[in-house]
Amino acid sequence: MLQRWIAHTVAGLAVATWAIGCTQGTTPEPAQAPVAPRQPAAAPAAPLAAPEKPAAATVAAAAPAAGAPAQWKRTEIAVLPWGSGPAQAGHVAQGDQNLEGPMALDVGADGKVWLLDQVNARILVLGLGQPPRSIPASRTAQDLILDGNSQPWTLDRLVDRQVRRLDPLTGAVTQTLDLATAGVAEPGLSTALWLHEGALWLEMENTRLVPLQAKATAKQGRPSRDGKWVLSALRVPPDKVAVAGRGVDQGDAEAPRLALQHQFELPLFSIADLDSDAAGRVWLTADLVRFGPDDRPLDRKRNAIAWTPGGKIAAQVELCAPVGAEEQFRTVRITAAGEVFNLCRGPAGVVVERWAP
Questions:
Q1: 3-state secondary structure 123-146
Q2: Which of 37, 44, 91, 293 is deepest in the core (most CB within 10 A)?
Q3: Pairing assessment for the beta strands 73-81 and 349-356 based on DSSP bridges
Q4: Are 222 and 233 in contact (CB under 8 A)?
């Protein structure tokens, strides 16, 4: 059982931390929220070193279940150097401010990527082989999500403490949800915007969803797309992860019916995303980092792993691994079809990639 495995592991390691989604730009302590891997003192000149832009997917050693993809193909949607031009991404690299780059992305029904370029006070809409277009957005926005009508919503959790719906063509604010009015007492603890059953929810402290539009009670964990599970993930240092799925009809005191676990080849630094697709597969993206004696990263990877509804590994894809310590929210998105979209930053810019069967 998952609980016995966690208890045994935690007893041996003395620490286990919850970590999903939101990343912060500070050097982590063992019990803090996940952060982006620390950047080496001397960054490489190239925006993304070749080992961090894999040309082919890594499929899990276990044989995929029937119907699972045998091979994943990588498509580079956009390469954006740092800057303020129409095909660049904003960056705050020094000074008294936190290090900043694009904080979030989402994917529209047409496959276009919406990238929150808040440093340049805009959202970039990226299509394969097309020049980017942009709409204005708040400089203090930190998360982005598209609703069922392809309307973009942004989260400003620290300054205006609002969620805003924007016109997808002009960027004009068409609706505002005040977080205090919605009953969110501490907006600074929010970690993601979430769409569930056609309504907008706010995730708090990587653990529970608070309704912003629906008349409903808060939910513990993240609902799966097939409507069967509420998912949670547990990081068990140094290199393990456990995912639990509680049935939607289960009480909080009941043991989860879905128990998944995995051991990575490198130490697990943070959990970048936990999601699912319409086929019922559960997806987890992990940032893996091995540090040397001088506290510099010797090796880093970003792995996306998928489990079938039966609990078997369907695939394990090695994504482009981010470099740097910029604050970020959601840099990985899983579509209903099971595509993986990844925002990867390097010293000279960002790459947006898609992995699809």
A1: EEEECCCCCCEEEECCCCCCEEEE
A2: 91
A3: antiparallel
A4: no
This prediction's pTM: 0.84
Whose structure tokens read 């005191």? 253
Q: Domain ranges in the chain? A: 2-356
Is the N-terminal amide bond of 238 cis, ω within 30° of 0? yes
SS3 264: coil
What is the maximum alpha-carbon separation in the chain? 55
- Amino acid letter at 74? R
Task: Please give the DSSP secondary-structure letter assigned to residue 52.
Answer: G
Q: Which CATH superfamily is domain 2-356 in?
A: TolB, C-terminal domain (2.120.10.30)
Q: Rounded distance, CA 177 to CA 172, Å?
A: 15
pLDDT tens figures, 59-115: 332 333 444 445 789 999 999 999 999 999 999 987 766 889 999 999 999 999 999
- The rounded distance, in Å, linking the Cα atoms of 224 and 284 is 12
Do residues 66 and 326 make contact, with C-beta atoms less than 8 angstroms apart? no
Nearest CA to 291 out of 10, 39, 35 is that of 39
Q: Cα-Cα-Cα-Cα dihedral of 181, 185, 270, 312, to 10°?
A: -60
Amino acid at 6: I
Neighbours of 217 (CB within 10 A): 8
Distance, CA of 283 to CA of 275 (rounded, Å): 5
What are the structure tokens assigned to 86, written together? 């129409």
Q: List strands edge to edge, sheet with 152-156.
A: 143-146, 152-156, 162-166, 173-178
